[in-house]
């Protein structure tokens, strides 16, 4: 990993953090694993204010000097089986030229520390089944497929647009 790498929690009100967050998320959205289409201007304009207004939302950016290398956005949830909060990773993005250098692992470490300090019982995330690079990274960090009883199968992530 890059010795100059620093991971900091995003201040949604600070111009530099706002610009870096939107830049990194837009790069991710343009990537095939992010859908291949950049963020709409209206989304770019509102995103940081919306995140700031969302209770418990947290973002981290990995920096090398003044260059943002990676981003993690997470939202709180709640485990009814444990009666404790959890953190769901909604986005994790690393610049293509920085992948494989420990940036994603550093972002995950920062979120884990944050979640443990808040009494969370687990971290959750979704990953595309074809994203082998990200899947290997998550497995290396200790994530595993979600199953209550393996005989019943593994959880599937589903959506319905509204």
Summarize the structure.
With 162 residues, the chain is α+β, with helices and mostly antiparallel strands.
Describe the structure.
The chain is α+β, with helices and mostly antiparallel strands and 162 residues long. The protein contains 4 helices and 5 strands, in the order βααβββαβα. It has helices at 15-30, 41-53, 103-117, 132-141, and strands at 5-9, 58-64, 67-79, 84-94, 123-125. A 5-stranded mixed beta sheet has the order 1-2-3-4-5. The mean pLDDT is 95.
Protein traits:
162 residues, 5-stranded mixed beta sheet
The largest sheet is: 5 strands, mixed
Poorly predicted ranges (pLDDT <50, ≥5 residues)? Answer: none
What letter string, H or E per element, gives the SSE order? EHHEEEHEH
Strand content: 15-25%
Strand order of the largest sheet: 1-2-3-4-5
Mean pLDDT: 95
Number of continuous helical runs: 4
Question: How widely separated are the two ends?
Answer: 41 Å
* SS class: alpha+beta
Q: Whole-number radius of gyration? A: 16 Å
Coarse morphology: globular
* Count of extended strands: 5
Helical content stands at 25-40%
């Amino acid at each position: 990993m890059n010795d100059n790498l620093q991971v900091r929690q995003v201040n949604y009100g600070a111009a530099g953090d706002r610009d870096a967050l939107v830049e990194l998320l837009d790069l991710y959205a343009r990537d095939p694993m992010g859908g291949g289409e950049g963020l709409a201007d209206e989304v770019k304009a509102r995103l940081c204010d919306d995140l700031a207004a969302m209770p418990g939302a947290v973002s981290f950016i990995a920096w090398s000097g003044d260059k943002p290398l990676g981003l993690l956005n997470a939202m709180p949830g709640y485990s009814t089986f444990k009666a404790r909060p959890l953190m769901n990773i909604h986005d994790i993005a690393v610049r293509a030229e920085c992948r494989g250098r420990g940036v994603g692992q550093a972002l995950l470490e920062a979120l884990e520390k944050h979640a443990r300090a808040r009494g969370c019982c687990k971290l959750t995330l979704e990953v595309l089944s074809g994203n082998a690079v990200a899947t290997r990274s998550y497995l290396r960090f200790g994530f595993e497929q979600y199953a209550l009883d393996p005989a019943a199968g593994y959880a599937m992530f589903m959506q319905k647009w509204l």
